Amino acid sequence: MSRTEEFEGLRPLLFAIAYRILGSVTEAEDAVQETWLRYEGAPEEPRSVKAFLSSVVTRISIDVLRSARVRREEYVGPWFPEPLLSDPYDDPERSAELADSLSMAALLLLERLTPPERAVFVLREVFGFGFPEIASAVGRSEAACRQLAVRARRHMDAGRPRFEADRRERDELAGRFFDAFREGDVDGLRELLAADVRMVADGGGKAPQIARDIVGSDNVTRVLAAFVAPFVAIGIVVEPHEVNGQPGAIFRDRDGKVLTVLVLDVLDGQVQTIRTVINPDKLGHVGPVADAWAIAREANRLRRPRPDRRP
Questions:
Q1: What is the pLDDT confidence band of residue 268, given thresholds at 50, 70 and 90?
Q2: Is the pLDDT of residue 309 over 50?
Q3: Is the fold of 3-159 the same as that of 167-303?
Q4: Which end of the chain has fewer CB within 10 Å, C or N?
Q5: Alpha-carbon span 90 to 87, nearest angstrom
Q6: Mean per-residue pLDDT over the chain, rounded
């Protein structure tokens, strides 16, 4: 088997590792490409191609994450990972770990870890790598990696929300949510929200701020009500789609361009959190991006009451 064939066979795994460490589709793709260049230029064939490539992509991702942390500290408003519509890597033996680690909630928890802790957690808890391989990947001793794993697991377990809704029930509720949105049924939306539901949007200062951090069913319903009717009127299309392993949707303008990606956290038959990513820099991999500012202006004109016309 050629190096190209070996690499392409492992590309889904390498991307899956890099994305969970970085929370960015574009940065993960760049890390995988850099891994290929280093593999292609290696003078000798490694004893284990999988171990070698996994180590390389991990080290690259750690370096990228360290520089990304500075940018994220200066980020305007809430920061969310770039939405991932489908995970290219599949391992039936670790399906639960892979799914749990992909959610927006889990990726945001990973942001609390140091880059080495995050890498160790991803390699150990998500992909089941042994500590000798992990030590080689992060450049620490096995003992140090075990300590990093314990600390990372403690942080994750302390803050991890458990969204263990039955998949069928979860998807059915999400379907009702998006049907109500398409139909402009505000009361129908309200019925599906938890009392302490949160709605948060990531615009990065580059798109209209739909909702910085809105809490409570009444407040979230008011925000949704302000957008539902105008969006329906101007032809916004709601395209249900799994996002980061959770129920979600892609919102497109009348020309099919991506306006935003929305993700729902569902538990106990209610929507607990609504996250929207509207920063255009995070949507390019989903498709051509709409002009959110133009759509917001059009929606605002429809919301603005018209003065009575008298003869």
A1: confident
A2: no
A3: no
A4: C
A5: 7
A6: 92
Place of tokens 């096995």: 142
- Give me the residue spans of the domains in the chain: 3-159, 167-303
Per the listing, tokens 């370096």 go with 63
Phi and psi (nearest 5°) for 96?
A: -65, -45
Question: Between these two residues, 255 and 304, which has the higher pLDDT value?
Answer: 255
- Give, in order, the Cα–Cα distances in Å from 167 to each of 20, 83, 163, 267: 22, 20, 10, 11
At residue 123, the 3 state secondary structure works out as: helix
Confidence band, pLDDT 50/70/90 cuts, at residue 304: low
Closest by CA to 190, choosing from 201, 182, 181, 203, is: 181
Cα–chain center distance at 306: 40
**Residue that the structure tokens 């009361």 belong to:** 187
Give me the count of residues in the chain.
311
CA 206 to CA 279: how far, in whole Å? 6
16-38 pLDDT, tens digit per residue, is 999 999 999 999 999 999 999 99
Closest listed residue to residue 155, CA positions, set 111, 197, 208: 111
Residues 122 and 101 sit within 8 Å (Cβ to Cβ):
yes
CB 199 within 8 Å of CB 226: no
Please tell me the distance from the alpha carbon of residue 241 to that of residue 237, in angstroms, as a whole number: 12
pLDDT at 311: 45
CATH topology of domain 167-303: Nuclear Transport Factor 2; Chain: A, (3.10.450)
DSSP string, 137-177: HHTS-HHHHHHHHHHHHHHHHHH-------HHHHHHHHHHH
Beta bridge partners of residue 184, listed in sequence order: none
Query: How does DSSP classify residue 289?
Result: B
Looking at domain 3-159, which of 1.25.40.10, 1.20.140.160, 1.10.150.450, 3.10.20.30 is its CATH number?
A: 1.20.140.160
